[in-house]
Amino acid sequence: MIAQRRLHTQRLIGPRFLTPADAVAFFGAVQAQDYLASLWALGLRVEGATEAIIEQAIIGRAIIRTWPMRGTIH
User: Fold this and answer.
1) Do residues 42 and 49 lie in contact, with contact meaning Cβ atoms separated by under 8 Å?
2) What is the secondary structure of the chain as a DSSP string?
3) Tens digit of pLDDT for each residue in 11-53?
4) pTM, whole model, 2 decimals?
């Protein structure tokens, strides 16, 4: 029960977001020290996402990568 609830809350099961920006807005931030892992984390949560869709959101500044605190990239 707890595992199912956590997966649902993290949007790994159930409804998906329509855009990468929707996902980031919902969570407030996505930890992203590892670039490819950050693409994967968003891609799992966005309906029909591809690597190109997530990267276009970064290029188009719909989402941003930054590290304002202690070197951790968000």
Assistant:
1) yes
2) -HHHHHHHHTTSSSPPBSSHHHHHHHHS----SSHHHHHHHHHTTBTT--HHHHHHHHHTTSS-----BTTB--
3) 999 999 999 999 999 998 887 778 898 899 999 999 999 999 9
4) 0.82
